């Protein structure tokens, strides 16, 4: 099962996640990172940036992107990844990919399908993802794989749930400006990463976290697919852990982990 680490704060989680990435890149300078957007991974990126590692050879693949925004739109994940990941970490922009980054606004369904297929090919050509950072949505999504997503799904176009659009409206002028569609790595794609690091903070994530880590594996709770992965570290604060049945055990296991 996943190693579940319950921490005091997002900053503490960022320290742990950043050291996992540091260990990886010190072993392999051209490691392949799977990067996530949203508020959750920010403390990880901040801590990692402060380590001032040489990450110029690291390759990175984002989980997802909105469909219908110009790549230059400040809230496109292309822009967000550039601003919050590529620049502060000192990644080489040519080694950072976002799904559909070759598309222009108004791309038709065929172009989107080809972009999704091309993205899968690019991940495979890079040798697969070594470590994938994941947030989890209140709907239980990882990437933008909303409930009902096939556990074997690959990168493709999805429709965002109303709840996800509401959750992300804080980044836009109005709810109407939040795109309805996205292109996201599939659950099958995410499962192929060699290591998963799932982060979640806050009471509003508690139900999704409990469903993902302890619920039945089900397409209705897409995050639960991580239970099929052999190497998962879930780092959550006490509020996000508040519905975990075995929280005491996870705390005990972490305190007494074998050195
Ligand atoms: P958040 O989003 O980090 O902004 O909470 C997580 C997600 O939707 O996957």
Instruction: Report the mean per-residue pLDDT as an integer.
Output: 96
Task: Determine the fraction of residues in helical runs and give it as a percent range.
Answer: 25-40%
Element order: H for helix, E for strand: EHEHEEHEHEEHEHEHEH
- The structure class reads alpha/beta
Question: Low-confidence stretches at least 5 residues in length (pLDDT < 50)?
Answer: none
Strand arrangement, largest sheet? 1-10-9-6-2-3-5
- Oligomer type: single chain
Strand percent estimate = 15-25%
Give the number of DSSP strands. 10
Radius of gyration: 17 Å
Task: Describe this structure as you would to a colleague.
The protein has 259 residues and is of the alpha/beta class. It has a single domain (3-255), classed as Rossmann fold (3-Layer(aba) Sandwich). It contains eight helices and ten strands. The strands form two sheets. Strands 1-10-9-6-2-3-5 form a seven-stranded parallel sheet, with helices on both faces. Strands 4-8-7 form a three-stranded antiparallel sheet. Strand 2, helix 2 (42-50) and strand 3 (59-62) form a beta-alpha-beta unit. Helix 1 (10-27) crosses helix 2. The chain is globular. Bound molecules: 2-phosphoglycolic acid (PGA).
